[in-house]
Specification:
It is a single chain. With 123 residues, this protein is mostly beta strands. It contains no helices and 13 strands. The strands form three sheets. Strands 2, 4, 5, 6, 9, 12 and 13 form a seven-stranded mixed β-sheet that branches. A four-stranded antiparallel β-sheet has the order 1-3-8-7, with no helix packed on it. The protein has a two-stranded antiparallel sheet with strand order 10-11. The chain is globular and about 35 Å long.
Length: 123
């Protein structure tokens, strides 16, 4: 199994940027599916960026063009660069990883390993 720890969240003004990091341990995530999800109070969890085992990226329409998922295999770390942030981006952000996730679409997927979350607040 893999353990995940996120960091990089915080408070930012609308239009600003943040880069979230997710350090993996226990296994190398080189060939894993990895992703970023978020959940706002009173809302369901939303998949926003997924990278499959060969590096192909999928983004939710709500963030497309504003966020970029990337991975540093040498550091075993996943990143989410977020630009042009909006108040509606306010949520708890989680990274996730799995060798074979449940995957139908970015809006219908589930992963086996999750981080504890990092809060992003945009005002």
């Amino acid at each position: 199994d893999v353990q995940l720890v996120e960091s990089g969240g915080g408070s930012v003004e609308a239009g600003g940027s943040l880069r979230l990091s997710c350090v993996a341990s226990g296994n190398n995530i080189r060939t894993y599916f990895v992703g970023w999800f978020r959940q706002a109070p009173g809302k369901e969890r939303e998949g926003i960026a997924i990278m499959d085992s060969i590096g192909s990226e999928t983004y939710a329409d709500s963030v497309k063009g504003r966020v970029t998922i990337s991975k540093d295999n040498a550091k075993n770390t996943l990143y989410l660069q977020m630009n042009s942030l909006k108040p509606e981006d306010t949520a708890m952000y989680y990274c996730a990883a799995d060798v074979t996730p449940i995957w139908r679409s970015i809006g219908d997927c589930d992963f086996g390993s999750w981080g504890q979350g990092t809060q992003v607040t945009v005002s």
